[in-house]
Specification:
By secondary structure, this protein is α/β, with parallel strands linked by helices. Helix content is about 30%, strand content about 10%.
């Protein structure tokens, strides 16, 4: 059993399940998501794609407490997740959470951690985020959604950002997005995406932090098991 911090929220909260979270996104809610990388920044550490940055850590702590109208997704650490050993230590991060806030699930993009979402109906629901929609894609690499993934979308605008340490160019990236006057923005850009989703939402732009959902979605489209990724699929860089 993992220890509970002495201060802050005493217990890791129940979160809104993945289907309800996705349905809220489809209906027009923006979402900022936290995974292991974002949680590390709460303690001022960095992660593989983003060096430590005090300003980024401050923003990620603030967003957990108040993100305005933007949904905040955190890991849905259930006892039946096949990655309970991976996510278990993050139960201690509940001290950073707002006890008065309802959190949604960041696992809307993670069938490896939430295999119960790996169904045709769920993936079809995800596709409605772009089918018939004009989309702006913000990404750092081909591991995230690209224009080639968005079958049935309307006009697609891609904004390619640095693969690593994107937060160092945050103001420039935000300005590039706003300049195209987007209707719906899909973002795959590590911890920077979490902050972008909140700031764009505050501007009245529908913004969705979807991380590397494409790696799983492509497996579904190929008829493979979308709940698992091989080592090569996880770590082989795809050209942007």
């Amino acid at each position: 059993m993992y220890p509970v911090p002495a201060r802050g929220m005493k217990h890791y909260p129940e979160v809104v399940n993945e289907l309800e979270t996705l349905q809220a996104c489809v209906s027009g809610r923006s979402i900022a998501r936290y995974g292991d990388g974002e949680f590390k920044f709460l303690k001022s550490a960095g992660c593989k794609s983003q060096q430590a940055d005090p300003k980024l850590s401050d923003r990620l702590r603030e967003i957990l407490w108040d993100a305005g109208d933007c949904l905040v997704g955190i890991p849905n650490i259930r006892s039946d997740t096949p990655k309970v050993d991976t996510w278990g230590p993050y139960l201690t991060y509940c001290k950073f959470l707002n006890p008065n806030k309802v959190y949604t699930s960041s696992f809307i993009t993670r069938p490896d951690s939430a295999p119960w979402i790996n169904t045709p109906d769920y993936w079809k629901a995800l596709e409605t985020l772009w089918v018939g929609q004009d989309i702006t894609l913000v990404r750092g690499s081909g591991k995230s959604l690209t224009a080639n993934d968005l079958h049935g979308a309307g006009m697609i605008t891609e904004i390619i950002c640095p693969r690593q340490h994107a937060f160092s160019e945050y103001d420039s990236i935000l300005a590039r997005i706003v300049k195209v006057k987007p209707k719906r923005v899909l973002i795959g850009l590590g911890p920077t995406a979490t902050v972008l989703a909140v700031d764009l939402c505050r501007m009245g732009i529908h913004a969705l932090d979807l991380g590397h959902v494409a790696m799983f979605y492509r497996k579904f489209c190929r008829g493979e098991n979308a709940s698992e990724l091989t080592h090569a699929e996880k770590y082989t860089e795809i050209p942007a």
